[in-house]
Amino acid sequence: MSGAARLFARLARPLPVLALAALLGACSSTPEKPKPTPLEPLAPALTVRPVWNQRIGTAALPLRIATQGNAIVVASSNGTVAAFAADSGQPLWRGAAGAEIGAGVGSDARRVAVVTRGGDLVVMESGTVRWKQPLGARSLTAPLLAGERVFVYGTDRSVQAFDADSGTRLWRLQRPGDPLTLAQPGVLLPVRDTLLVGQGTRLAGLDPLHGTMRWDVLLASPRGTNEVERLADLVGPAARVGDMVCARAYQAAVACVNADSATLAWSRNTSGAQGLQADERHVYGADSTDRITAWRRANGEVAWQSERFRFRGLGSPALAPSAVVFGDGEGWVHLLSRDDGRPLARVSTDGSPVVGAPVLAAGNLVVVTRSGGVFAFRIE
Description:
Layout lengths: L2 H7 L7 H10 L21 E8 L10 E3 L2 E5 L4 E6 L5 E6 L4 E7 L3 E6 L3 E6 L2 E7 L9 E3 L2 E5 L5 E5 L5 E5 L14 E4 L2 E6 L2 E5 L6 E6 L15 E8 L2 E6 L3 E6 L4 E7 L7 E2 L3 E5 L5 E5 L5 E5 L11 E3 L2 E5 L4 E6 L5 E6 L5 E8 L2 E6 L3 E7 L1
Antiparallel strand pairs: 1-32, 2-3, 3-4, 4-5, 6-7, 7-8, 8-9, 10-11, 11-12, 12-13, 14-15, 15-16, 16-17, 18-19, 19-20, 20-21, 22-23, 23-24, 24-25, 26-27, 27-28, 28-29, 30-31, 31-32
């Protein structure tokens, strides 16, 4: 087994000017959105019951929920990081990153990593800060902890690796690219002995030991009349099933790549800014109008679409037994049939938007809301 294979086998400062320009361009004033589609009456086909709920603090950004066995780890924008037992909601520990958080949470069996708004990588164990390192760039992507290393993807498209114990910087890679970058979570995940990262409209495979490029694949061709309109960076989370990795290019396309052969399987033009999820049959995602589409994973053909939730502010999806799950901007959690998109059940949280993708842990579906609620539901 190669050194890189052994590495991944153990997996279980101010905002940069360029990123700021992209953020302002991507979030410039637009005409008022249409009103959310009213929810239809629903006779639930699944029983979904609340199990527990906790509070973490306001989550202004979609901070990722991490899992550690029977624990889930969540963070709030004000710097609080906390772990709860996934089955019961029992508090396990709570700590402080020492500053407002802009990206998180990444985790392995022991450690938790977040990135502050000021651009510091912070690594904690059981709520205690072990070390900090300045990145020299802002990050909105949850750090990846794998093989005793911490990998970070910046809004300037830089990739950095640090020793998980000491915080020593091991390597940094930054490729020349477009003058503007997208201020939104990107793609960063391991596949076998390769580190996959979004680099503009390309999915790149890196050697995680040395930070050298192994391959890259173009997922979308940017469209538009100016640099802002042509922004089509890959946005996270990406979906992985075996060697197949599927990702969305911002407002441009959804595409799947075979990471083993480094070849494009298919690409389909579609708008959208949220991440994806996938199973053996389908790739799921919501577009910029919150139309939900399931593409056939094998060839990219549309299997089904649903317009029941248009303009409801859907986030990135998650998978639960027999269902694909979306949270919306009014705090509802929707469970849909993976076969045809039929609504199976829905549950409410606290009325504030669900942020980030839900996760399944210890048999419970866990979501976080913008006002800081952490809610767990059991699907029966």
